Amino acid sequence: MHLSRDVVLLITYSGDFFTIDRVAEALSKKGVQPFRLDTDKFPLEVQLTAHFDKSKSYHTIECNNRSISTEQVQAVWMRRIWEPQLSQELAPKFREACIKESQATLDGFWDSLKETTWVDNLERIDYASNKLRQLRIASEVGFVIPQTLITNKAQAAREFFQQVNGKMVSKLLTALSRSMEANSSFFLYTSIVKEEDLQDAESLRYCPMVFQEQIPKQQELRVVYVNGNVFVGALNADMYAAAKVDWRKPGVEIGAWQHHQLPDQVVRRLKAFMGKFGLLFGALDFIVTPSGEYVFLEINPVGEWGMLEKDLDLPIASAIAEALLQRMNN
């Protein structure tokens, strides 16, 4: 089945629900046809063909008895890119080659859509994903940030521990493999560091880590920015155990999300921050301290927001659809 001229491509994976469905529904209500592409189903269940000749080039993609060409795609929502799910029967030496070729083919598909509206552009997502760059730019626009050390030197980590009076957390600069079990690494999520953890910290020489002062919390905020609109959910820090420092960790009881109004000054800084990255979308984490100070932690350019729409009835999906259409119609 071929779709009409006005198609919005939704890039995701087969395990994605709710957020993807809400955006697809919002687009349909606005008279535009969404086309969902589950990247983990390519190449086994999705067919992609690229055509090049002297006069023009275009790609076609087929899945679930629907097909589109790149000429029909007016906008792209970049939700998730996942690794191909290949048959276990495939020999490992072929498996690696198939994954590389599949990813290179998808890269060519994204490239063929480079003149299309994206929320957000892949290069900008990659640029904004660097946590060190985030901290630098956050500081430049006036956000308060935690004291931070990134090092592969054990002694530097121990000295920083003393500098922050033993109130220290650790985190990774990048996400580990998507398939990694939640509890397979002490440092997978933001974790409290104790002095004994640093006694045998020589393994840092193999892999640098991020260490930050532990900020006292009154509330934790998930702030979702969509093309100038700001949606906020707040968690009271006393609703979950102090030892479980990261509310995103599976199994942490977080209590109820609450509405929260950001001060105008924080909103102005947020818009300046997003402007520096050229992003239309971002999910940001802040801490509100007991004294009422707003401390920037990080931004995820493709972060989660479904819980805010579900629990607080915030119209985030509609705002994303509107951002796609607004750019499309300009």
* Percent of residues in β-strands: 25-35%
Major sheet description: 5 strands, antiparallel
Uncertain segments = 176-188
Rg computed from alpha carbons, rounded to a whole number of angstroms: 22 Å
Annotated CATH homologous superfamily of the largest domain: ATP-grasp fold, B domain
Largest sheet: spatial strand order: 14-13-12-15-16
* Secondary structure tally: strands: 16
The CATH topology of the largest domain turns out to be: D-amino Acid Aminotransferase, Chain A, domain 1
Q: Using the alpha-carbon principal axes, give the shape.
A: globular
Distance between the termini: 28 Å
Class per helix and strand makeup: alpha+beta
Query: What's the domain count?
Result: 3
Order of helices and strands: EHEEEEEHEHHEHEEEEEEHEEHH
The CATH architecture of the largest domain comes to 2-Layer Sandwich
Mean pLDDT, as a whole number?
87
What is the CATH domain class of the largest domain?
Answer: Alpha Beta
Task: Classify the helix fraction into a percent range.
Answer: 25-40%
Q: Report the total helices.
A: 8
Defining key terms:
8 helices, 4-stranded parallel β-sheet, MvdD-like_ATPgrasp, alpha+beta, 3 domains, Rossmann fold, globular, ATP_grasp_MvdC, single chain, 330 residues
Describe the structure in your own words:
This protein is of the alpha+beta class and 330 residues long. It has 3 domains: 113 residues, Rossmann fold (3-Layer(aba) Sandwich), CATH 3.40.50; 139 residues, ATP-grasp fold, B domain (D-amino Acid Aminotransferase, Chain A, domain 1); 68 residues, no CATH class. 28% of the residues lie in helices and 26% in strands. A 5-stranded antiparallel sheet has the order 14-13-12-15-16, with helices on both faces. A 4-stranded parallel sheet has the order 2-1-6-7, covered by helices on one side. It has a 4-stranded antiparallel sheet with strand order 8-11-9-10, covered by helices on one side. The two termini are 28 Å apart. This is RimK domain protein ATP-grasp. One of its GO terms (molecular function) is ribosomal S6-glutamic acid ligase activity. One of its GO terms (biological process) is SOS response. It comes from Nostoc punctiforme (strain ATCC 29133 / PCC 73102).
